[in-house]
Each structure stands twice: as C-alpha cells, then as structure tokens.
Amino acid sequence: MHDCGSEPSREIVDRVEKILAACGIKENPYFDSLRSGAMPREEFYRTQRQFYFAVDFFSRPMSALLMRMSCPEQRLHVLANVVEEHGDFQPSAFHEATFREFLDALGDAGRPEPAEMGPPVHAFNSTIMAACLFDDRDVGIACLGIIEFAFADISAMIGQAVIDRGWLTENKLVHYSLHAEIDKQHADDFFKLIEDDWRDPTRRSRIEQGLQLGAYAFDRLYRDLLLIS
C-alpha cells in the first residue's frame, strides 16, 4: 500500500465483478420484486426508510479507517469520500439529507428516529464497522470498496424501477441519481489503496476476505429488508 496515485488494478475490478455476479446481488429477491411490480409502493417506502440508517451510518466506518492509516496520501483518499458523504461541507447536500429528501417525496413521514432501526440494518452497520475498526485494514478497505462498487449499479436499478412504477419523476431521485454517477469512482478510491497489496499473495487473501464480506453483507441486507417489510 504505497503508490496511492496509480490507477486501481483491473484485476481487482474483475474480481469484484465476479464476486458480485456469484452472490447474485442484482438478482436479489428485493430487486426482483421491485422490478416486477410485485412490491407495492408502501412496502418500498418502509424498506427504504430502514435503508436510511445505512446511508446515515456509512461515513463512520470510513472515519474508523482514517485513524488506522499512517500514510497521509492514503488518508486523503478516504477523507475525500468522507467529505463527499457530508456534501462537501454543505448540510443540504449531506447524503443523509438527500436520502431524506427522497423519502419525503415517497411518503413524508418525517425523519426516521434511531429507535426505528431494525435488525437487518443494525447487523449490516455493525458488520462493516467491525471490519474497518478491528479487522485487518485491507479487509475493511476491500469491504467498503465492493459495497460502493455495487451501489452504483443498484442505485441506477432502483431509480429506473421507481420511474417505471410511476412513483416519482427523475428529478425527485436526487440521492439515487447521484450515487449511480459517483460510486464507481468512490470504489476506485478504495481499490487504489489496496493495489500494491493485491500483488502480494499473502495480502491478497485478506483483500479477498474483505471483498467477499462486503458482497455478502450488502446482499444479505436487501434480502432481510424484504423479509421484515
């Protein structure tokens, strides 16, 4: 983990794509139900209200990684993502705020309260925080990277389904439109940090663990959200 300025290895991205395909996240029952029209608007709103707690939390594991990095250039990559999560210091552009704007357009039931958070999101948040705070550093970096990579396509998929159902117009998708556009770059920022370690067979196994964990946890989150809706 030395050259923070190089492009992420294509091998890492190829491996990420294979892991996501193997876990079948795009064919997750949550997305199948949404795309097919089987999921009513009220159910979608309830599950997205739960997902708010994942959106609100996501910058905290990133911040946990920051304090574990001795190289300032490495910290800068992660710090840029943390700042972007906070709207480049503009409160109205915080990802938490843009997601609330999306929720308000769907159902307008007010800001979700912490006591509303169910076990699926609680488990997801706890998993990624533990990976970033207590596990090998490469595990945490890879875990967040694959989640960011997956969320770009998931955001586009959700946004299109919402438009197809006629629930919202494109200009109301704020949060999902943004993430469909920027999250592949966010993922690249993480993958750059582990490119050198990917070339080391003894370190690659830890990266592989992080990628597998992130894919599993994210896929499991959506499956479980559907079950409790």
Task: Outline the structure in words.
The protein is built from 10 helices and no strands. It is mainly α and 229 residues long. The protein has one domain (10-228): Heme oxygenase-like (Heme Oxygenase, Chain A). The longest helix has 29 residues, at 137-165. It starts with 9 loop residues before the first helix and ends with a helix. The model is unreliable at 1-6 (pLDDT under 50).
Q: If classified by CATH, what would the architecture be?
A: Up-down Bundle
CATH class value: Mainly Alpha
SSE order, as H and E? HHHHHHHHHH
Q: CATH fold name, please?
A: Heme Oxygenase, Chain A
- Major β-sheet, in short? none
Question: Unreliable segments (pLDDT under 50, ≥5 consecutive)?
Answer: 1-6
Number of domains: 1
Categorize the overall geometry. Answer: globular
**Spatial separation of the terminal alpha carbons:** 42 Å
Count of helical regions: 10
* Average residue pLDDT: 87
The percent of residues in helical segments reads: over 70%
Summarize the SSE layout with pairings.
Blueprint: H1 10-23, H2 29-36, H3 41-57, H4 59-66, H5 72-85, H6 95-106, H7 119-133, H8 137-165, H9 174-198, H10 201-228
Helix pairs in contact: 1-10, 3-6, 3-7, 4-5, 4-7, 5-9, 7-8, 7-10, 8-9, 8-10
Compact overview of the structure:
The chain is mainly alpha-helical and 229 residues long.
